[in-house]
Amino acid sequence: MTGIYNKVGVAGGSDHGTGGEVRRGGVLGVLGAVLTFLSVLFILLTFPLTAWSCVQVVLEYERAVIFRLGRVVKGPAKGPGLIWFIPWLDDVQKVDLRTFSAYLCPHQVLTADSVPLLVDAVVFYRVVDPTLWFTRVQNGCVATLWLVQASLRAALGAHTLTDLLTQRSSIATRMEEVLHTSSWLWGVQVQRVEIRDLRVPISLQRCLAAEAEAERMGRAMMIVAEGELKASRTLRAAASELSPVALHLRYLQTLASVDSSASIVVWIVPTEILQ
């Protein structure tokens, strides 16, 4: 029974706290509306003097997010052009919408077949929602780079070394799709990730070079063997079509081509001629 009473008391206290927060929020909202009205009235009454302090220029590639009394002003980001704000109530934050490029320093990655690699990459990203960029993440640039590095390590660790060397573009495309889904919550769009270099250890480079050389030698021997096989088949076909008289004439032609200045000439006479 005591536990039940305790639970009921805690629940009642929670409801009371929620109601207090609602009332407090309503009071602050009314106070903020009053301050805004008085500020606008003051600006209108002293318009020639306060006009310059209430105007700010936003460039074509920029957008401005206005925080009024700590809250984001409703609506999309302001700009480009002239924007109006209340200097003593508003905090104007600008963001660049152009594409940024960042270089990821070489870091070690372990592939699926336990091969250590040093990988460096280049990331291209841009801000697509300035409000989320300021309200969802504290340092968007650093967070985006850390996210790209973690995604790159996970993507490369799921493939073997052979896949990384032969399917680099497809792996980069799949990684971009994953990053696009993850970074959209921050108002960022990762446009492209380029893997610049994959550095293999020296010992493994020697093994790969020996393996490649052995494969090339094997292919060369196979080509030579196929050529000899085709030549033997061609000679067999030619010999089957020649008559015995043609073979004798060919033999005599060979004897006639022997150099007469030689001191010793060995003639090999087939038994068919003697017969």
The level of helicity is 40-55%
Q: Kindly report how far apart the N and C termini lie.
A: 129 Å
**Please, what is the oligomeric state?**
single chain
Low-confidence stretches: 1-17
Q: CATH-wise, what's the superfamily of the domain at 100-204?
A: Band 7 domain
Question: TL;DR?
Answer:
Helix 4 crosses helix 6. 55% of the residues lie in helices and 21% in strands. Belongs to the band 7/mec-2 family.
Describe this structure as you would to a colleague.
By secondary structure, the chain is α+β, with helices and mostly antiparallel strands. Among the domains are: 24-96, no CATH class; 100-204, Tetrahydropterin Synthase, Chain A (2-Layer Sandwich), CATH 3.30.479. Helix content is 55%, strand content 21%. It is built from 9 helices and 8 strands. The chain has helices spanning 2-45, 47-50, 130-135, 140-157, 161-166, 168-183, 202-241, 244-256, 271-274; strands spanning 55-58, 62-68, 71-72, 81-84, 90-96, 100-110, 116-127, 188-199. Strands 3-2-5 form a 3-stranded antiparallel sheet. A 3-stranded antiparallel sheet has the order 6-7-8, covered by helices on one side. The protein has a two-stranded antiparallel sheet with strand order 1-4. Helix 4 (140-157) packs across helix 6 (168-183). The protein is rod-shaped. One of its GO terms (cellular component) is cytoplasmic side of plasma membrane. Keywords: Membrane, Transmembrane, Transmembrane helix.
Which helices and strands appear, and what pairs or packs with what?
Layout: H1 2-45, H2 47-50, E1 55-58, E2 62-68, E3 71-72, E4 81-84, E5 90-96, E6 100-110, E7 116-127, H3 130-135, H4 140-157, H5 161-166, H6 168-183, E8 188-199, H7 202-241, H8 244-256, H9 271-274
Antiparallel strand pairs: 1-4, 2-3, 2-5, 6-7, 7-8
Helix pairs in contact: 4-6
